[in-house]
């Protein structure tokens, strides 16, 4: 499924249309037939990924236990155990990224995720940091040398690639002041 296309289409929908879809999707997520298909594909000890809606990204984990409504997993990053609903498990390794439709379009809570490296302007300087939290109107960003920031989505300049960070690993600040 092309999530970018879907989000762009949903942007045209009214609040009522979105609520109606929300209600229908909620029922489908609880559909026992869908849940059984997922449960049958699971094997204790298997490596999997699941979508965390708070962080807006896939999380890698190992399956520890299969319950009636949830699965118990061990998250690799935190080494903590979590119960997750079956519907969040990404069995087919689907790409969950949602991209901006155009380069001029601002970033949104759907196009950014926890762990992304981003940059923004502050007093004529470009500051680079890592997203630590996705909020409704802002993202919480932590930099190496310049503390923590809450930045509105329209102020995010771009997402940085790993290559961008390797070119300036210690230089999280670019000064354009003369």
What would you say this structure looks like, in words?
The strands form 2 sheets. Strands 5, 6, 7, 8, 9 and 10 form a 6-stranded antiparallel sheet that branches. Strands 1-2-3-4 form a 4-stranded antiparallel sheet, with no helix packed on it. 13% of the residues are buried. It has helices spanning 3-10, 15-29, 32-41, 162-167, and strands spanning 47-52, 57-66, 70-75, 81-85, 117-122, 125-134, 138-142, 148-152, 156-160, 173-175. Mean pLDDT is 88; it is low at 163-178. The chain has 2 domains: 3-88, SH3 type barrels; 117-175. A hairpin with a 5-residue loop joins β3 (70-75) and β4 (81-85). The protein is α+β, with helices and mostly antiparallel strands and 178 residues long. Helix content is 22%, strand content 34%. It is globular.
Short characterization:
The chain is α+β, with helices and mostly antiparallel strands and 178 residues long.
Helix fraction by DSSP (H/I, runs of at least 4) = 10-25%
Question: Averaged pLDDT, please?
Answer: 88
Number of helices: 4
Q: Whole-number radius of gyration?
A: 19 Å
